Amino acid sequence: MKENVLRKKSLTFAVRIVNLSKYLRENKKEFTLSDQVLRSGTAIGAMICEAERSESTPDFIHKLKIAEKEANETLYWLELLKETQYITQTEYNSINDNTIELIKMLVSSIKTARANYKQQQNSSFVIIPDSFPN
């Protein structure tokens, strides 16, 4: 079975987000923003896992688009945490780079899936049964 790099990176990212949320709660006594970044940051990987078991190519694309939106929302919460000095510029840069990497991978996967789906839709071939008369 081929390794799913996107899933692996999204899990690693989710672990970072969980640890960030714990840090914000325990050390900064910040609960509202930590909940928001926890929800959006962990939803990315959850949607990627859902996409793996999608019912169709359009469903697969849709789930990856939701993951992309969650990643974009996570960028917002991270920036807000930085601007309100809950995290440092260095901490922000590190996790923000990971978020952008995930977004780029999601966009690439979505483009590939769309192109493959379009190609499948445009290819017309005829299946000739074995019992077809000569």
Write the layout of secondary structure elements.
Blueprint: H1 5-27, H2 32-52, H3 57-83, H4 89-122
Helix pairs in contact: 1-2, 1-4, 2-3, 3-4
Radius of gyration: 20 Å
> Please, what is the oligomeric state?
single chain
Query: How many strands in all?
Result: 0
Number of helices: 4
Morphology: elongated
Q: What helical percentage do the residues reach?
A: over 70%
Alpha carbon gap, first and last residue: 42 Å
Strand content: under 5%
User: What structural class do the secondary elements suggest?
Assistant: mainly alpha
Mean pLDDT: 93
Q: How do the helices and strands follow one another from N- to C-terminus?
A: HHHH
Largest sheet, in brief, is: none
Uncertain parts: none
What is this structure, in a nutshell?
By secondary structure, the chain is mainly alpha-helical. It has 4 helices and no strands.
How would you explain this protein's 3D organization?
This protein starts with a helix and ends in a 12-residue tail after the last helix. The model has no long low-confidence stretch (mean pLDDT 93). It has helices spanning 5-27, 32-52, 57-83, 89-122. Helix 2 runs antiparallel to helix 3 and helix 3 runs antiparallel to helix 4. The protein has 4 helices and no strands. It is mainly alpha-helical and 134 residues long.
Keywords:
single chain, about 130 residues, mainly alpha, 4 helices
